[in-house]
Amino acid sequence: MQNLDMTTLVFLALAVFVAWKLRSVLGQKTGHEQPPTDPFRRDRPQAGADQATGAEGRPDNVIRLPGAANDAGQELPAAERWKDIAAPGSPVFAGIEAIDRQEPGFDPRNFLGGAKAAYETIVTAFARGDRKALKGLLAKEVYEGFEAAISEREKRGETAESNFVSIDKAEIVAVDVKGKTAQVTIAFVSQLISVVRDAQGAVVDGSADSVSEVNDVWTFSRQLGSRDPNWLLVATESAA
Q: What are the residue ranges spanned by the domains of the chain?
């Protein structure tokens, strides 16, 4: 019985020693453990106690999508976003700000890209006499003027061709916002091959072989806040 008791005591001592070693290696619960990390969560914290956090205590390593709601307050100031479009303090800059106040996220660079596409489409559609294409891009009064010119050309039996070589410049030169109505004026400089032929095919205006520089000033307008995203051409003039 004495031998059994001694053996039991030895094993108990060994068990206590092993448990103590495991505890020292693996550590112990403190009540402040973090839950297991989900590798697919976008806002998972980085390892380490001195992780940087944002103004609201959110981890700064959260992936933010451009323009998303969680980007609020993080975007560049207007002076930085538009400095290559208009000088801060200029009337054009103030006009862009006025549009942005009613439609946050307005991007004048994207607007210029769309305006160049519209400019080319309108010029070539007018040459072809494509009334359907023009109607969706022009304000009523402008469309009526274009349609009258096309009708006169058709009465004379003339045909026109316009082909763009390049659009060298598209610059916002004026922005006007009155209430919900915004108007943006753009100066275009383009290289164009343009020719008009009579019923017999003889050239009556322009040239089918030479490139001409064309300077136009066009104004586009839109009702801010409207569900219709399209800007319509409301005025045209030729620049010197």
A: 86-238
